[in-house]
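Quick one: DUF3592 domain-containing protein from Amycolatopsis nalaikhensis, structure tokens please.
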Amino acid sequence: MSDRPRRLRAARRLRAWRVCWVLVGAFGAMGFVTLAAGTAWQLAHRFGAGDVVLAGAGLGGTAAVTASAVVLVRRFERRIRVLVPHRGALPPLSTADLEAGPPVPRGGRRFEWALAVFGGGVLVAAVLVLSALDAVTQDLLETGTRTEGVVLDVHDPARGTSTFHVSYIAAGAEKTAEIAWHSDRTYRPGDRVTVVYDATHVRTTDEDNPDQFLVGLCVVSMIGALLLVPGAAVAATRL
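--- reply ---
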């Protein structure tokens, strides 16, 4: 009895997961480019030691996701060529195909499981960094130096983070800082605000002003990890 129907079903399933990993790879590549551009901007303005470590971790993570997706897509291609050496147009994929058992005998899946563990580590690390950023801003509110500041200008775009620039006096010199605006308060140029600062960070009593680059880095890393973990786990157990 010919096993061609079974091979076609297996090839269709592999094709579907190949498409999924192509999308994951594309997301990883876009994340890498975005983080690289953000890192370049930060290097031209201000960059602390912690920023360097987190930027390196983010760039390494997105590069790893992209490279892993490329490896898996190539692996799927090889399996498809084995199952259907002379590929023509495969029949449409059905739900039953996805719910069917493994298309090929299960072998070692160390690479896929390592990807899943890596993604889980990235997710945990991103959550911890976000928690640490929140703790830093709260500690600053309690221990930082307070002074009066004046709002210079306000940027409230339809999309993206609203910000305003504030001028204040620190150590006898006038300084300017950009504050991310997340509260319900309305700001206008000339408004008086209470600025809280230390050697590395500035906020107001109403705006915690976390580092937007690090927040964006964590969000991108979390999204990538949420795609990577289930995708790698499925690849390890079903493909």
